[in-house]
Amino acid sequence: MKTSWRALVAVALLAGFPALVFLVVGGLAVTEYFFFRHHSGILAIKLAVVALPVSYALLRALFAIERTRGDALPGVPVTRAAEPALWALVEELAVAVGTRPPDTITLVSEVNAGVLERTGWLGLRVRRREMFIGAQLLAGLRHDQLCALLGHELGHYSNRDTRLAGLTYRGRRSIERALAGLSGDGWFEGLVRKLFVLYAKLYFAVSAAVCRRQELAADAAAARVAGTAAMTGVLREVEVLDVAWDFYADRYLSIGWDAGYLPDRLAGGFAALLADETRAEGFDQVRRNPPVKEESRYATHPPTPERIAALEALPEVPGRSGGDHPASEILRDPGPTLEAALAADLSDKAKRKQRTDWNRLVDVGVRHTVTREAARILGPDGTIAQALDRIDAGRAAELADPERKPPSSAGPRAQREFAAPSVRERLSIVVQAYLAEAEVAHWKLSWSGPPEFVVDEPHGGELTAALDAAAAADHDTAPLRRLLAATGVLPIRS
What is the pLDDT of residue 69? Predict the structure, then answer.
């Protein structure tokens, strides 16, 4: 009941937004009319220069509140005929939580799931119910956790949260749009903006409190139909998948971007990362200790630890039997289906990239990056032979990172020792680029760590010692020169 009253307050505040808009716009119109009738036209024109943009921004935001187009996420719609098992599970859970199922289900490329209702008449008339399920969730959850996830989303329907949620969400967007439109530097724009900022803070605080209570109620509904352990488990697992996907996108999906490539198996790579034993320890730490994000009175979701604690405070509900198999098995053909869902969110620029297998992607991507960095280190028209000649001439510091400067009081020996680590690092990059170009080395995919640089034998075992000797304060480039000559990078000295 408390949630309902808060929701009504949120809707009342949203209804007050048009009143505030009309009050400001009407006040400006009356003032403009007064100036035209009783003062000079110049003052009226000056006021119009300020009032018209302000009025336009406010009215534009106002008329966006009731619009229901948009909010569509790119994804793969799944029909009952295409995915009967998924639809059967959703319909079964809908009955369990006491609501009717959605009209559509769409798989999207987000570590998230959600429901919404397309409504009219300020949320009083429902046009269509929609459900969105993230492909990453299907790739990483167990079946019992999927049941809890779906039960949570359907719980929003049964609590009638979605009826006004779409309206309050669009209200937040409209008020944000109004504030963005009031971006002028004038004192009047600043005054109007301050007025709406204060109103927005009140509305955001009330609507956020409604959303947080709705989340807790939906968590409880999901626990009743899927089990307490499954619901607390999915809350932890979503945090893991969120961290894992960000890491995957940053470290793996982008590895060949500058070279013009993307992997041909987006979902397959993500599954391989999740299954890696070395990465599992880090993911398990997130699972045991979900991150506590900085709290805000405007946040729409309670912190994950708070949601888990609220569930554990309720009477424990046993889980469903047979829920330990992968959630993706509910799909008829998981591989292509998840691939299509993840690819649906790719930008036009990403879709123009060539698709290749993971092993080639890593080699081509890292090679492109290292070759470009080597060219920057050597400078225009620089070569590896010239770099080694500089070292032999006592000018190794010229290869060091110019941002790492030794103390001004350091003597020649101290300066060489200070520069040695940087020289070693940058010389290694240059040598890797040359060996890769000579087709005697490549970069190997590793889900456990950074790509591994592999040099063909018998040279692989010699490279580390040769680089160490060449970059040392008491340098010796002979071993590295012999290796580079044996691999065809440098001519063999007679």
Answer: 46
Q: What is the Cα 461 distance to its own chain's centre?
A: 40
Quick count: other Cβ atoms within 10 Å of Cβ 378?
A: 18
Predicted local confidence at residue 170, as pLDDT: 56
Residue with more model confidence, 77 or 33: 77
Domain ranges across the chain: 75-166+206-353, 357-486
| Segment 405-439, tens digit of pLDDT | 777 666 677 777 888 899 999 999 999 999 999 99
Residues 6+ apart with CB under 8 A from 424: 467, 468, 471
- Which helix (H) or strand (E) segment holds residue 356: the answer is strand 354-356
- For 230-266, the three-class secondary structure string (H helix, E strand, C coil) is HHHHHHHHHHHHHHHHHHHHHHHHCCCCCCCEEECCH
For a pLDDT cut of 90, what percent of the chain falls above it? 54
> Two tokens at 135?
């492909």
Q: If you average pLDDT over residues 362-387, what whole number do you get?
A: 95
CB neighbour class for 386 (10 Å; exposed up to 12, middle 13-18, buried from 19): exposed
85, 145, 473: which is closest to 326 by C-alpha?
A: 145
The 3-state secondary structure of 426-439 reads: HHHHHHHHHHHHCC
Alpha-carbon gap, residue 467 to 487, rounded angstroms: 15
Which residue intervals of 141-227 are DSSP H helices? 143-158, 161-181, 187-226
pTM for the whole structure = 0.80
The dihedrals phi and psi of 443, each to the nearest 5 degrees, come to -105, 135
User: Rg for the chain (alpha carbons), in Å?
Assistant: 31
Nearest Cα neighbor of 350 from 247, 270, 242, 258 is 258
Q: With H, G, I as helix, E, B as strand and everything else as coil, classify residue 354.
A: strand
| Interatomic CA distance for residues 468 and 487, integer angstroms | 18
| pLDDT confidence of residue 68 | 44
**Treating both helix axes as pointing N-terminal to C-terminal, what angle do 84-97 and 187-226 enclose, rounded to 10 degrees?**
90
Tokens found for residue 277: 């034993």
Inform me whether the pLDDT recorded for 3 exceeds 80.
no
Per-residue CA distances from 341 to 142, 179, 190, 346 (Å): 19, 34, 44, 10
* Sequence-ordered strand ranges (E) for 91-144: 104-108, 113-120, 125-134
Do 182 and 55 touch, CB atoms closer than 8 A? no
DSSP 8-state symbol, 328: G
Q: Given pLDDT bands bounded at 50, 70 and 90, which one contains residue 124?
A: very low
